[in-house]
Amino acid sequence: MSATNHLEPRVAKLEGQLSALAKDLSDLSGIVREFAKGASVQFQAITGRLAEISGPRPTNWQVIIAGATLMMAIGYASFAPVWMRLADMESHAIKLDSELAGHRALELHPVGMERINKLESELRNRVLDLTTEIKKIEEQGTSPLRERIIMLESKLPKP
pTM, whole model, 2 decimals? Predict the structure, then answer.
């Protein structure tokens, strides 16, 4: 019996370790089972999300309209100064046209009118002077210069 006595504590120890291992194995299988359930739920969630992502999505018209409105606002903000400047230039051109038409409607500028009157007066005086000189030549006949030219020509030798 001494051989059995010697083996009994070892067998008891091994049985204790075996039962601890069986309990640990049972706990591990429970943990794996719970993990498998959680993983299964997560895989189903991932599969559902992938189907949502890869499948057709509904059109979000509010975002499209908001984007178009934003683009129009930016476009108006960038072109508004140009349009305002063009409108200002057009109104200035219209004002200049009306001023030019008013200036053309005047008979003559006062300084220009004075200059024309002076030139007309000088022209009238010159015409009167020339008229009196012509009358003088007509009354006296040929001028003294003409008579002198005739005299000099007569003194020249004839070819």
Answer: 0.32
